[in-house]
Design brief:
The structure holds 2 protein chains of 2 kinds.
Chain A: H1 10-34, H2 40-53, E1 58-60, E2 64-66, H3 71-78, H4 80-98, H5 106-129, H6 137-163, H7 165-168, H8 183-216, H9 225-229
Antiparallel strand pairs in A: 1-2
Chain B: H1 4-18, H2 35-42, H3 47-53, H4 73-102
The chains are: A mainly alpha, B mainly alpha.
Chain lengths: ~230, ~100
C-alpha cells in the first residue's frame, strides 16, 4: 500500500499533503494534551513494531505481495491520534531510508495508512467492545474485526487515489501520465490483496496482542486517553 | 512475571530475527512496481511516472537491501537484517525526539 513516486500526479500529491497537514497538527495538539513523557517510549516501541510487521511480505495470488500494518493496534493502546503520529513517522523513515513509498506520496500514504487505517479500525473496535471488560472475548474480537476493516478501507483509499489518475491525467491522445490503471482494475487488485491476505494477518496480530494484553497486562489499555475517560 | 517493557524488547528482537521470512514472497506489492517492471507490464513507461520516479532521491538502503549484496538469498537476508535494525533504531529515536518536542507533562 506504499504508493511510490510517479504513480500519483503532482496535483494529487499536493492535495493529499494538504489533507494530511491539518490532521498532523490536530494529532500534535491532542497528544500534547493527553500524553505524558512516560507514554512516549511506548509509542516509539509500537511504531518500531509496526515498521517490523510491514517487513513481512506475504504472497498474494497473481504474483504480487502484501503486508500487515499494525496501525489499529497502536490506536487501541494509545488512541487513534497517537497512531497517526507513530505511523506517519514510520512511513517517513520508510520513504527516506528505504525508498518504500515515494517522497511525493508521503501525504497520501500517511492519510491512508496513518489516518484512515487506525481511525476506522479503532472506531469499529470501540463499537464492538463498548463497555466490555478488558479480558473479554468482545475485546479481542472487536480488535481483530476493526483491524481487518481498517486495513481494507485504507487499501480502498489507495486504490481510489491510484485509479482516478488515468481519467484525470493523460496525454492529448489519452495515454496515462501516472498510474495507468483505472478504478476497475485498482479496486479489485487492492481489495483482493488486503481482504484475502493482509487483512487476515492484520486481524490475527491485532486480536492476538489485545487478547494477550487483556489477560496479562490490562493496565496497558489505560494509556489510551479515551479509554481512561470512558469516551 | 517479567516487566512488560522487557517482553516487548524480546518480541522486537524475535521479529528482527524472523524478518528474512518477509523475503520469501516473490514479486512486488500491487502498484509498487519500479519503472523496469512497469515497462514489462505495459510495454511503455507513462511519461509523468518516469519523470517523478526519477526524482533525485537515493535511499541509504534501497528496498531494504545493501546495494551489491543482492546476488544471493544470504546477501539479501543480511541487507534485510541491517535494514530492520536501522529502521527500528531510527524510528524509536525519531518518535522519542518528536515526543519530546510535543509533550510537556
Amino acid at each position: 500500500m506504499h504508493i511510490p513516486d510517479g504513480y500519483l500526479s503532482p496535483a494529487t500529491c499536493g492535495t493529499m499533503y494538504a489533507i494530511s497537514l491539518p490532521l498532523w497538527v490536530r494529532a500534535g495538539i491532542v497528544i500534547r494534551k493527553t500524553f505524558t513523557r512516560r507514554t512516549v517510549p511506548t509509542l516509539a516501541l509500537l511504531s518500531a513494531f509496526s515498521f517490523l510487521i510491514m517487513m513481512f511480505n506475504v504472497p498474494v495470488p497473481g504474483g504480487t505481495t502484501a503486508h500487515a500494518v499494525g496501525g489499529t493496534l497502536i490506536a487501541i493502546l494509545l488512541g487513534p491520534w497517537a497512531a497517526l503520529i507513530g505511523e506517519s513517522l514510520a512511513l517517513v523513515v520508510q520513504a527516506v531510508f528505504f525508498g518504500d513509498g515515494g517522497i511525493t506520496a508521503i501525504g497520501a500514504n500517511c492519510f491512508n495508512m496513518g489516518f484512515v487505517l487506525p481511525f476506522v479500525g479503532y472506531f469499529v473496535y470501540r463499537a464492538i467492545s463498548w463497555r466490555s471488560g478488558l479480558d473479554t472475548r468482545r475485546r479481542w474480537i472487536g480488535a481483530a474485526i476493526g483491524a481487518y476493516i481498517g486495513i481494507n478501507v485504507a487499501a480502498l483509499m489507495a486504490a481510489v487515489e491510484f485509479g482516478i489518475q488515468p481519467y484525470l491525467f493523460h496525454t492529448a491522445t489519452g495515454v496515462p501520465l501516472y498510474c495507468p490503471y483505472g478504478l476497475a482494475q485498482t479496486i479489485p487488485a487492492m481489495l483482493l490483496a488486503h481482504s484475502l491476505i493482509a487483512g487476515p494477518v492484520e486481524a490475527v496480530i491485532t486480536g492476538g496482542v489485545v487478547a494477550f494484553l487483556g489477560k496479562y497486562h490490562p493496565e496497558m489499555f489505560k494509556l489510551n486517553p479515551y479509554e481512561r475517560s470512558g469516551k | 512475571m517479567m516487566r512488560y517493557r522487557k517482553k516487548v524488547w524480546i518480541l522486537v528482537a524475535i521479529l528482527i530475527g524472523l524478518t528474512p521470512l518477509g523475503l520469501l514472497a516473490s514479486g512486488t506489492a500491487w502498484g509498487e512496481w519500479g519503472t523496469d517492471e512497469i515497462k514489462g507490464l505495459l510495454g511503455y513507461i507513462p511519461q509523468g511516472l518516469a519523470r517523478l520516479a526519477g526524482i533525485n532521491h537515493t535511499p541509504v538502503l534501497p528496498d531494504y537491501s545493501l546495494p551489491g549484496l543482492n546476488g544471493t538469498f544470504a546477501g539479501q537476508a543480511i541487507g534485510y537484517y541491517i535494514s530492520a535494525i536501522v529502521g527500528v533504531v531510527v524510528i524509536i529515536l525519531l518518535v522519542l525526539g518528536v515526543g519530546r518536542l510535543i509533550v510537556r507533562k
